Amino acid sequence: MLLADKTLFITGGSAGIGRATALAAARQGADIAIHYLGHDEGAHSAVAEIEQIGRRAIAIEGDVSDPASARRFVEEGTAALGALDIFVNNAGICPFHAFLDMPGEVFERTMNVNLHGAFYMVQAAANQMVRQGKGGAIVAVSSISALVGGEYQSHYTPTKAGVHSLMQSAAIALGRHGIRCNSVMPGTILTDINKEDLADAAKRQYMEGRIPLGRLGEPDDLAGPIIFLASDLARYVTGASLLVDGGMFVNLQ
Ligand SMILES: C[C@@H]1O[C@H](O)[C@H](O)[C@H](O)[C@H]1O
Questions:
Q1: Atom number of ligand 1 nearest to Cα 144
Q2: Are 197 and 237 in contact (CB under 8 A)?
Q3: Is residue 249 part of a domain?
Q4: Angle at CA 76, nearest 5°, toward 55 and 27?
Q5: What pTM was estimated for this model as a whole?
Q6: Residue 250 domain-assigned?
Q7: Hey, whose CA ends up nearest to atom 9 of ligand 1?
Q8: Is the pLDDT of residue 48 over 90?
Q9: Where are the alpha helices (DSSP H) in the chain?
Q10: Catalytic residue numbers, as ranges
């Protein structure tokens, strides 16, 4: 059990990569705190599944772009589970939109959820870990899109590059406290975030054609790499980023 008797807090934990990671972490022995927004059914069924696995779980609703929700998640989650050992910043949105006529609200909302939300959540979690005085691990879900662009993602890719950079700086700031900070960089993982975009058969075919492993990713493909970076197997890994993309990034020709 890679996460025996640890607690793992995860944002965006009611669906997709977040839910898959929460369930896989419970199977590795962790108790789980799930943060979610507006997906009650998904959050509560995840809690029920984790309890069936034999671990404790709690679901706390809130909007990550609101700094108060970060403090509340950490306070209520720690009160329920006793400590905060591992924090996974996963919540994110990608409302695909053309660049030239993108409304300011779409840009601002994407920035506020993906990057500002990550900053507030990671800062709140790190302060709790420092108070506990026994180190910890933080894993942020960045993206292949931190390294490459997207025609309809000019508001999104800067946030993923920002999350990657946040982990690099946090790794330096928190190393002395025994807290490790790393990011995973998913490729194109089929979830609610891109279901509509990939409903376009030509787009899907193009994306699949770029992947040496020959298929789009699934949420469970991220659970293992996240758990590895959160576990003691990665005890000397901090400030690093791990592509999880089926080889898409390197595939020029
Ligand atoms: C929404 C999703 O975001 C990822 O970071 C990457 O850009 C994928 O290609 C896209 O489908």
A1: 5
A2: no
A3: no
A4: 20
A5: 0.98
A6: no
A7: 188
A8: yes
A9: 16-27, 40-53, 67-81, 104-111, 117-132, 157-174, 201-209, 220-230
A10: 143, 156, 160
Take atom 6 of ligand 1 and give the residue whose Cα is closest.
Answer: 188
Residue 253 lies in a domain: no
Give the separation between CA 11 and CA 140, rounded to whole angstroms.
10
Residue 228 lies in a domain: yes
Per the structure, the complete domain to which residue 63 belongs is given by 7-244
- Is this complex's ipTM strictly greater than 0.95? yes
Helix 157-174 and helix 117-132, axial crossing angle in degrees, nearest 10:
20
pLDDT per residue as tens digits for the range 171-227: 999 999 999 999 999 999 999 999 999 999 999 999 999 999 999 999 999 999 999
Number of domains comprising the chain: 1
Pocket test for ligand 1, best of 17, 96, 147, 153 (most atoms within 8 A of CB): 153
Query: How many Å lie between the centroid of ligand 1 and the Cα of residue 233?
Result: 28
User: By three-state DSSP, how is residue 66 classified?
Assistant: coil
CATH number at residue 185: 3.40.50.720
Sequence letter at residue 226: I
